[in-house]
Write a structure and sequence with these properties.
With 106 residues, the chain is mostly beta strands. The chain is 0% helix and 41% strand. The protein has no helices and eight strands. It has strands at residues 14-17, 22-32, 39-48, 54-58, 61-63, 67-69, 81-84, 90-92. Strands 1, 2, 3, 4, 5, 6, 7 and 8 form an eight-stranded mixed beta sheet that branches. β2 and β3 (39-48) form a beta hairpin. It is globular, with a radius of gyration of 15 Å. The N and C termini lie far apart (33 Å).
Amino acid sequence: MNLNDQPHLYRPPMVWLNGVNQPGLLLAWIRTAQSPQWQAIVTWIKTTGSETTRYQRLTPIVAATGLRSMEDPQAYSDVPRLQFTADGILQPLPAAPPSAPPQQLG
């Protein structure tokens, strides 16, 4: 069974994180009520240690301009779009907001 073809499974698309020079997963587009600039919630695994390997999952908010696509543009169309309100509440945005995040990343 090829799970990549299962429409009911959400697979976050891969992105290249320019700041850390490694791949990650794009979990959501996000913006604040004060700024129209898009940011992204991403996650990746950081490994450290020479004798004992340690793994740490990082999930920061980064500038959308610091990401590069690693998949076909259609892979990014289902990424959730969220907005922080002035009250600090995180809420979903409609599927196609007025200033939509880039469909094709740099």
